[in-house]
Amino acid sequence: MAWAPPAPGRARDWLRGHPVAADLLLAVSAVAVELVLTGLLPSDLRPTPWLMAVGPSVAGAVPVALRRAAPWFAVGTAMVLAVATVFWHRQSLTMVLAYVLLTYSTAARFPLRRAVLAGGLLWLPVLVGNVLVPDAIGADDVSLAYRVLTNAMVALVCFFIGRTVHNRRAYTAALEERTRAAERDRHALADRAVAEERRRIARELHDVVAHHVSVMGVLATAARRVLARDPAAADEALGTIEETGRTSLREMGRLLSVLRTEAEPTVELAPQPDLAGIEALVEQVRDAGLPVNLWVTGEPVTLDPGVALAVYRIVQEALTNTLKHAGTATAEVWLDFGQRWLRVEVVDTGRGERIHASPTASGHGLLGMRERAAIYGGTLRTGPRPGGGFRVIAQIPVERSDR
Questions:
Q1: Is residue 268 part of a domain?
Q2: Rg, the chain, Cα only
Q3: Which of 52, 64, 366, 379 has the most CB atoms in a 10 Å sphere around its CB?
Q4: Residue numbers of the domain that contains 362
């Protein structure tokens, strides 16, 4: 199988993703080019011994290879090499490349003050060497002035090119951040608009369901009153109640589908637990290793299914938190049926102050318990017990009937 060189686009992308490797490759290439050019010079112009060409070239390539991996170390190395050049009386090609690239890269990468400091540290030894050691560059004043001016122009051009790139990168980053922020705002506005529309539709469907339920109540009262003397009219009213109930159920399903969000998990259809399920819940908690007792006081009353479910969930969450956070402890569950209130109390003998379940986890946690109690006009109080342990108390209003 014949070898094929990588595509130029893929090689460029690889070099952009590996800047240190790119700098090292550039430094090696610069040394190779300088050695080849030195070998092509006439014999009387070649430096002797050969180490005089190899040594400065390799030394000058070090700042090139480290300009992005260790920029300040590269600047210090370039300063040392600038002083050494005065004694070598020879400036390598890699040294010139190092000064140009370091001036550009520090100006493009650093903030303004650090970029100016790095540029000053780089070029100050060069300018001082031009002034104090004129023999190394030419003895006449015109040559000296020309060399100083040339170095200053090269430094300024490289610095301003780097600052232009720095400002352009900052501008591009700001534009990208503004674009992301605008995109987030657009999604937020879209979600808000969808939520508002869903609430409007839900209010309309709620009015429809409420109307149907009111009609069912009126018809049920009328059917009960005429059942003995006019069975046909009662049968007709019951038929209307049946059809209205089915319509209300369909509208209720549409109402819930409007309010349901995509983030909510899909649950299986199953009977919801009620007060009778609390005893089984207590048994499960005992099997899990927490000794717990259930106490029921007062005269039990039949609760609405929603209220019974809220009581069950409050007890379930409180016992789950005790299992997770109380350590070695015991717990008690009290259901106290009063004339107007149902008092639910869950206490334990654990460590007292502790963090309960996350309030954002699908309605669980202290916030979820508080919301469940508030829906039915109740209250929730939580906190440590005197002497140790934790207490959860929910008080929910109940309605007693003579039937």
A1: no
A2: 42
A3: 64
A4: 276-397
Q: What is the pLDDT of residues 151-185, one digit of tens each?
A: 888 888 888 988 998 899 899 989 999 989 888 88
Total structural domains within the chain: 3
114: tokens are: 């650090």
Task: Let me know whether 129 and 96 are in one domain.
Answer: yes
Instruction: Return the bridge partners of 160, or none.
Output: none
Q: Is-above-0.90 flag for pTM?
A: no
- Tokens 């106290």 correspond to 336
| Predicted pLDDT of residue 40 | 64
Q: Which amino acid is at 122?
A: L
Q: Which residues pair with 383 in a beta bridge?
A: 391
**CA separation for the pair 99, 63 (Å, rounded):** 8
Pair (215, 313) in one structural domain = no
Residue linked to tokens 């490349």: 97
**Crossing angle for the helix pair 71-88 and 112-132, to the nearest 10 degrees:** 10
Domain membership flag for residue 158: no
**pLDDT tens sequence across 25-58:** 877 877 787 777 766 666 655 666 655 667 777 7
131 three-state secondary structure: helix
Tokens in use for 229? 């003397």
Written as one string, the DSSP assignment of 150-199 is HHHHHHHHHHHHHHHHHHHHHHHHHHHHHHHHHHHHHHHHHHHHHHHHHH
